């Protein structure tokens, strides 16, 4: 299966891809405040590239549980110093041949980021907050990640009730996939994210992971973000984010076996290592082989 983005494409039949997280929000749940300056952000981007990242996802709006939503202008004020200068993360990424992604649900932020050189947009609302974002992505010929979530920006984490988590996630993402296509985005430029930890309790997040094979019936790559998330602690030993690496890697390998092929993570080196082993152990169909 192919995922296209502006300036390139990933063939996901042979190798899973790893997207490193670069948080530019001061209140992110795990590493908020570490990379707020241009120099720190560029250094972190270069480090993730050396660890094997296939792309880096920049986010200036914290989507942690209980986090406050911010407007498009404040979001861009956090991003601009890192993206829009001669010594920017965008320049460093271009030098390294590393595509950048922008984590936003604001069309205006996406437009400015794409003008600065970003190659794909990661919308945690799945076009639910600002449907105009689809036209921005279409005009730029960028890639788009549609994530499953429900509600307003300040309530994306609020748990919901489902008849069948896997089927409900698939149904909404099918609807959003059709919306994106109707706005001019080819299917080849779209990936689908079941939204682990968004609008779901811990057990519901597990059900969403188990539902990955259903998502694959939409014939688009499945993209997941698992690292350090609260469901790992809730279902484990109550560990804080700093203690969730092992559980996150276990969930990553399980998601790979179920068919996910793009992984967004804080822990690039460890995730790359786990996935390379999973690729050796598992057949392309995701069945253990001797």
UniProtKB/TrEMBL annotation:
<keyword id="KW-0289">Folate biosynthesis</keyword>
<dbReference type="Pfam" id="PF00809">
    <property type="entry name" value="Pterin_bind"/>
</dbReference>
<dbReference type="GO" id="GO:0046656">
    <property type="term" value="P:folic acid biosynthetic process"/>
</dbReference>
<dbReference type="GO" id="GO:0046654">
    <property type="term" value="P:tetrahydrofolate biosynthetic process"/>
</dbReference>
<dbReference type="GO" id="GO:0046872">
    <property type="term" value="F:metal ion binding"/>
</dbReference>
<dbReference type="InterPro" id="IPR000489">
    <property type="entry name" value="Pterin-binding_dom"/>
</dbReference>
<keyword id="KW-0479">Metal-binding</keyword>
<dbReference type="InterPro" id="IPR045031">
    <property type="entry name" value="DHP_synth-like"/>
</dbReference>
<dbReference type="GO" id="GO:0004156">
    <property type="term" value="F:dihydropteroate synthase activity"/>
</dbReference>
<protein>
    <recommendedName>
        <fullName>dihydropteroate synthase</fullName>
        <ecNumber>2.5.1.15</ecNumber>
    </recommendedName>
</protein>
<keyword id="KW-0460">Magnesium</keyword>
<comment type="pathway">
    <text>Cofactor biosynthesis; tetrahydrofolate biosynthesis; 7,8-dihydrofolate from 2-amino-4-hydroxy-6-hydroxymethyl-7,8-dihydropteridine diphosphate and 4-aminobenzoate: step 1/2.</text>
</comment>
<dbReference type="InterPro" id="IPR011005">
    <property type="entry name" value="Dihydropteroate_synth-like_sf"/>
</dbReference>
<feature type="domain" description="Pterin-binding">
    <location>
        <begin position="16"/>
        <end position="276"/>
    </location>
</feature>
<dbReference type="InterPro" id="IPR006390">
    <property type="entry name" value="DHP_synth_dom"/>
</dbReference>
<dbReference type="GO" id="GO:0005829">
    <property type="term" value="C:cytosol"/>
</dbReference>
<keyword id="KW-0808">Transferase</keyword>
């Amino acid at each position: 299966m192919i995922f296209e983005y502006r300036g390139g494409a990933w063939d996901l039949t042979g190798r899973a891809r790893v997207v490193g997280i670069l948080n530019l929000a001061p209140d992110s749940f795990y590493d908020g405040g570490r990379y707020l300056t241009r120099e720190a952000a560029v250094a972190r981007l270069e480090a993730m590239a050396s660890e094997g990242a296939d792309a880096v996802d920049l986010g200036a709006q914290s989507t942690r549980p209980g986090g406050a939503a911010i407007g498009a202008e404040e979001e861009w004020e956090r991003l601009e110093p890192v993206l829009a200068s001669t010594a920017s993360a965008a320049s460093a990424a271009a030098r390294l041949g590393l595509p950048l992604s922008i984590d936003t649900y604001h069309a205006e932020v996406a437009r400015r980021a794409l003008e600065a050189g970003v190659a794909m947009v990661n919308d945690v609302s799945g076009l639910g907050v600002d449907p105009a974002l689809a036209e921005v992505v279409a005009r730029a010929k960028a890639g788009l990640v549609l994530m499953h979530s429900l509600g307003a920006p300040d309530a994306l984490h609020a748990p919901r009730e489902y008849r069948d988590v896997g089927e409900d996630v698939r149904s909404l993402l099918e609807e959003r996939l059709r919306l994106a296509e109707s706005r001019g985005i080819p299917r080849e430029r779209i990936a689908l994210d079941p939204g682990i930890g968004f609008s779901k309790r811990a057990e519901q997040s597990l059900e969403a992971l188990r539902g990955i094979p259903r998502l694959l019936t939409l014939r688009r790559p499945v993209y997941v973000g698992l690292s350090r998330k609260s469901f790992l602690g809730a279902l484990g030993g109550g560990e804080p984010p700093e203690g969730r690496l092992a559980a996150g890697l276990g969930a990553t390998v399980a998601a790979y076996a179920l068919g996910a092929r793009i992984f967004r993570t804080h822990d690039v080196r460890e995730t790359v290592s786990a996935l390379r082993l999973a690729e050796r152990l598992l057949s392309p169909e995701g069945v253990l082989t001797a």
